């Protein structure tokens, strides 16, 4: 089981990742968001920032659909994200190791090419492969 503290630790461990001021968590690389708290909107109610749910960039619609269909207990979406390469993940249902993989993949897809080598160097320095 993961939580917002895990999201923050994993995201900030990535090269050039920065957290922007928000009511939950919101991480960027080169001014592009890769993981943030879910801003839940319900008709007639004020927006609620859900730090128990992370919004992740996934790259494309095919990957989004694969995650949603393959692991519906873990991933979901709303109509507000139709047409966007984003999924929501229930932090209470994901392991920290899987969250690490998801956050790193989201960072990798949002980072410009010239920063990707920094991640590979960082991972190699920790004895991990990319």
UniProtKB/TrEMBL annotation:
<dbReference type="InterPro" id="IPR058532">
    <property type="entry name" value="YjbR/MT2646/Rv2570-like"/>
</dbReference>
<protein>
    <recommendedName>
        <fullName>MmcQ/YjbR family DNA-binding protein</fullName>
    </recommendedName>
</protein>
<dbReference type="Pfam" id="PF04237">
    <property type="entry name" value="YjbR"/>
</dbReference>
